[in-house]
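call fold(seq) -> tokens
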Amino acid sequence: MLYNSNTISGLISELEGYHRTITTERENAQTAATQLINQAWQSGDDGGASAAFHQKHNKLIEDLDGLLLTLSKGITHVNDAVTKAKSTDTKVAGDFTW
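ret:
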């Protein structure tokens, strides 16, 4: 594959944008969950709904953290491949790995 710095820079920017967006949404979900659980706790007996919600929320956060880790690795691998391509003959073979 012929090395194209604009395409690679675009890919890196896109991955970083996804990472920022997902990080923001993760933080928003955490804030909303904390507020919701606090309200449920203050209102008294919720029949176990807050515990069920908390369990599902924790799974969501775990999944988002996994996605963020995968995106971080992808960004690192793309940057590493670009560095390798620049240091060789500007051709990238199978260097893009996840």
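The mean pLDDT is 84.
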